[in-house]
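Handout, section B. The chain below has 256 residues.
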Amino acid sequence: MKTPVNLEPLSCPHCHGAVVFPDGPSGEAVCKSCGLVRNRIQISQDFTEWTPKWFYNWDEKDSETLREWLTALRTVSCRLNLPNFPHREEAARVIRQKSDLLFRSQRFGRNKTEAVTALLHLILRKYNEMRPLREICKTLSLDQRLVTKYSWAMREVTDFSRTFSARDYLMKYGWNLTSDTGLIQTADQLLTSLRREISGNPASLAAGVFYFVCQSRKTKISKDRIGEVFHISNRTVYSSERRISRLCRLKGLIIA
């Protein structure tokens, strides 16, 4: 027997417009039509509050190795158009704080640019800026596979454990593709229903579920367009959608 997916309302209680999540300065869910704040999402920052000391500047006491790391940081930050504060400053603070571990690593020492890029990617994620690693590596002309490996290693060194879920990606990018509250609502509920059954890259899962719901509802949004917005390839969107489709058939789920 097929089990329909139960839906919870995501529309604005005032004007019934589409709710954007998160859109407010503190992570609120804000109505796209009238601006009503539907609810507040708690966003935590793990960074210690500090008065800027401009850690990215060096002086005579700094070692040659530290200067090389800070020079790489300056170059990467400029090419990515990142502001001095907080991203570049936080990266410099981590480099100074974890210098013993970072400088002992031959892997990081051989490829300082890739290591700094991986660190900045983690810091951007900490500040809830989901800038895809693929886009960053393309801008810097770096090997994405190598930077990805460095990101995992850098996460252990820096204790950065924050990750984004498939629902986070769906809510961030889905509204850039449609204002159909029902479609986003269905995709969100489907992700929730399948969370224990499927794993993988969260951005790919979110894009696959979104495309699957579009196909089920006869909504004409191409996999090319979805891939562009979610910053993944159209092939990845298609393969993820096929996985979702097979799993829904096995579980007897239908999309209304």
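Note. The longest strand covers residues 29-31. Compare this with the example in section A.
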